[in-house]
Amino acid sequence: MDLNRRPVASLWIGESLQYLNQLCLKSHLRHGHPVTLYCTDKVTNAPEGVIVKPATDIMDIPMDIVEATSASFLSNVFRYKMIQKTGAVWIDCDAYCHKPFPDEWDYIYAGHGMRGALNCGVVGMPQQCELIDQLLDYYDNLPDVPPWWNKNQRRKIERLDSNLPHAVKIYKTERTAFGPQAFTHFARTTGDI
Hints:
By secondary structure, the chain is α/β, with parallel strands linked by helices. The protein has a domain at 8-141: Spore Coat Polysaccharide Biosynthesis Protein SpsA, Chain A (Alpha-Beta Complex). The protein is 37% helix and 15% strand. It contains seven helices and six strands. The chain is globular and about 55 Å long.
C-alpha cells in the first residue's frame, strides 16, 4: 500500500475498536493516507498499517474530566492540539474515507446542519494559524461562559453545582460548547468561514 498522501490521525478512548471503527480507519489507508491512532489504553485490534501511539504523546489525559463528561469532550481538545503538534488531518474513528483528501487544501471541514455549525468529525488546518491559536487559547483559558452563549445558557450554568470543575459545568450546560459551537465561533471570528 502506497501511503503518500496527507497523514490523518484520531483518538481512541478504550481498549478495543469496534468493527465500524476498524473499517473506517482502514478506508483512509486504502486511499493512501498514513493513519495514526492515539490511544488512552492499550489497543490490540487496530487494522494492520495503522500506527498506534499513546495519547499522552499529544497531551496529558484528564480521565477524571472524561468520566464526568464524555469521550467527545476530550477529543474536542485533543483534536486541535494534535493538529498543531503533527499537522495531520483529524478524523473521527467513524469517518469513512470515500476518496482521498486533496493535498492542496489547507483547510478541511464541513457544515454540521445544526444551526449552521461546523462539523468537527474531519478537520484539517495549518499547524500554525489564528484559528488553531484561538481554539487552544479557549480550551486552555476557559472563560466564565463561552462568548457566544445567550442568557438562557448563562442562567443554566449558574444553576449547576459550584463544586464541579469549570469545564464540566460548561459541558453539562451545552454538550457541543467544546465541539461544533467553539469551532464555528472561532472560525467566524478569524474569518475562516
